[in-house]
């Protein structure tokens, strides 16, 4: 049976042949807000006691933030700018946790002025800064836990060791600060649910220590790093540990900081091959030498093809699918567009491509968009967003805000927008309302003429598919 194409490829294979993109080399994402909604529904089913506070750093696209806000999630912010971003879309301070254990003093003061009270700490110096900048903060002590089961380990940089917990709690008590809970992070992409059990048990011990010092803790933050797949296994271990150490009648509220779980599979990236060259790879015995690539033809060596694509190193994997062409595959290197020799995306065996071909990359919604750069003057990828009418209605999203330069000229004729978007051939648009924030001031509900099509295409777009 022929495997079904990932949803992102279905949209993109319609978009790329479109007249608008003929001759275009600009990379672009297609993001599916339905996927974000479905992940939220799954989270509620598998972890009903755990309220998600989405990690803004993972993907700060405003459409994603608005969708999650409409679904009632909280937000994990790590800086003043991230707090500004989520509050600009109407998120209230009680829905924000400032989950960074080492914060600039000015950022602490800003959080105080905005009423963002929940924040983490893991050292005495941070307590002193909080005393000066936000003495009424509601604090969570982040503890270092075993992260050996995870691909990305964080406990070396963040978290108080269990041996220092007692002294930190006593110091917070002396400073008359309000410690409300405990947080931890088992590391990103954890592969074994036992890590959560261990961490939740350790957090329970800290709750007991805090009680003896005089604190009444009622908040547990089990951190982030959840993969976009495999939540079933992790949730079983988490739920069992919560039932044992923090049962539902304990009065302890439980939150988490998922990021990639919500967005990783929601985005697919299209990269244009704008250059290529053939080289000859040396035998295996000579790999790693300064002559690993012999840039001359002949000598009976294996052909290697190097491709240069329109976006760089923040791409994790280019997957081969069973339905892919059975053409001969060649050892290939995919480079980003910049002059940086470190901008080497990956080595892969793949069919031969031509200049102008497109490479599609699935599962790139996490830690890509916020980290993209225009180094060397290369354009950041455009973002196209799709959502079905059912989800749109359920989210009750009336308008979509985008930020444009203050000198942007806005004109009329909404019908032109509909006709132009039909040309994109991703989805059939019934109607569109775009509310533009001409930063930093006036809000306008507008539509565009032909002269503004280019502008419209290069901002985030919401629509209804049929």
Automatic annotation (TrEMBL):
One Gene Ontology CC term in the entry: cytoplasm
Pfam families per UniProt: Orn_Arg_deC_N
Gene Ontology molecular function: ornithine decarboxylase activity
PROSITE patterns from the UniProt entry: ODR_DC_2_1 (PS00878), ODR_DC_2_2 (PS00879)
Keyword Chloroplast set for record: no
Reaction(s) the record says it catalyses: L-ornithine + H(+) = putrescine + CO2
EC number assigned by the record: 4.1.1.17
Keyword entries, A-Z: Lyase, Polyamine biosynthesis, Pyridoxal phosphate
Listed pathway(s): Amine and polyamine biosynthesis; putrescine biosynthesis via L-ornithine pathway; putrescine from L-ornithine: step 1/1
Residues annotated as signal peptide: none
Active site: 339
GO biological process, one term: putrescine biosynthetic process from arginine, via ornithine
Modified residues (N6-(pyridoxal phosphate)lysine): 57
Stated role: Catalyzes the first and rate-limiting step of polyamine biosynthesis that converts ornithine into putrescine, which is the precursor for the polyamines, spermidine and spermine. Polyamines are essential for cell proliferation and are implicated in cellular processes, ranging from DNA replication to apoptosis.
Name the UniProt record assigns to this protein: ornithine decarboxylase
Source species taxonomy: Eukaryota, Metazoa, Chordata, Craniata, Vertebrata
């Amino acid at each position: 049976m022929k495997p079904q194409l990932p949803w992102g490829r279905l949209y993109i294979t319609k978009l790329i042949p479109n007249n608008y993109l003929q001759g275009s080399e600009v990379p672009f994402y297609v993001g599916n807000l339905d996927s974000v909604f479905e992940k939220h529904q799954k989270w509620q089913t598998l972890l009903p006691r755990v309220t998600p506070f989405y990690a803004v750093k993972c993907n700060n696209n405003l459409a994603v933030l608005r969708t999650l806000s409409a679904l009632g999630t909280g937000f994990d912010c790590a800086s003043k700018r991230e707090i500004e971003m989520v509050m600009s879309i109407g998120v209230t301070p009680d829905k924000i946790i400032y989950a960074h254990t080492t914060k600039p003093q000015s950022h602490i003061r800003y959080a105080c002025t905005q009423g963002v009270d929940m924040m983490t700490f893991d050292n005495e110096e941070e307590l002193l800064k909080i005393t000066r900048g936000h003495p009424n903060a509601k604090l969570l002590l982040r503890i270092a836990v075993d992260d050996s089961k995870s691909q990305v380990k964080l406990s070396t940089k963040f978290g108080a060791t269990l041996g220092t917990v007692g002294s930190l709690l006593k110091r917070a008590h002396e400073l008359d600060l309000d410690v409300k809970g405990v947080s931890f992070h088992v590391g990103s992409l954890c592969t074994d649910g036992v890590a959560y059990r261990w961490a939740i048990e350790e957090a329970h011990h800290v709750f007991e220590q805090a009680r003896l010092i005089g604190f009444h803790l009622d908040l547990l933050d089990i951190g982030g790093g959840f993969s976009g797949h495999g939540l079933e296994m992790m949730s079983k271990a988490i739920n069992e540990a919560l039932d044992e150490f923090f049962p539902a009648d304990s009065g302890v509220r439980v939150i988490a900081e998922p990021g990639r779980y919500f967005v990783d599979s929601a985005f697919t990236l299209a990269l244009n091959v704008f250059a290529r060259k053939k080289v000859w790879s040396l035998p295996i015995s000579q790999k790693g030498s300064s002559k690993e690539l012999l840039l001359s033809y002949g000598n009976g060596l294996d052909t290697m093809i190097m491709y240069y694509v329109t976006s760089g190193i923040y791409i994790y994997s280019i997957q081969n699918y069973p339905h892919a062409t059975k053409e001969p595959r060649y050892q290939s290197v995919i480079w980003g567009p910049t002059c940086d020799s470190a901008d080497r995306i990956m080595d892969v065996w793949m069919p031969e491509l031509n200049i102008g071909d497109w490479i599609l990359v699935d599962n790139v919604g996490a830690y890509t968009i916020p980290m993209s750069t225009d180094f060397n003057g290369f354009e950041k990828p455009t973002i196209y967003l799709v959502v079905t009418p059912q989800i749109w209605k359920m989210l009750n999203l009336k308008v979509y805000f985008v930020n444009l330069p203050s000198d942007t000229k806005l004109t009329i004729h909404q019908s032109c927008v509909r006709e132009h978007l039909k040309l994109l051939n991703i989805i059939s648009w019934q109607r569109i309302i775009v509310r533009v924030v001409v930063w930093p001031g006036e809000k306008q509900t507008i539509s565009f003429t032909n002269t503004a099509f280019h502008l419209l295409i290069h901002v985030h777009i919401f629509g209804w598919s049929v």
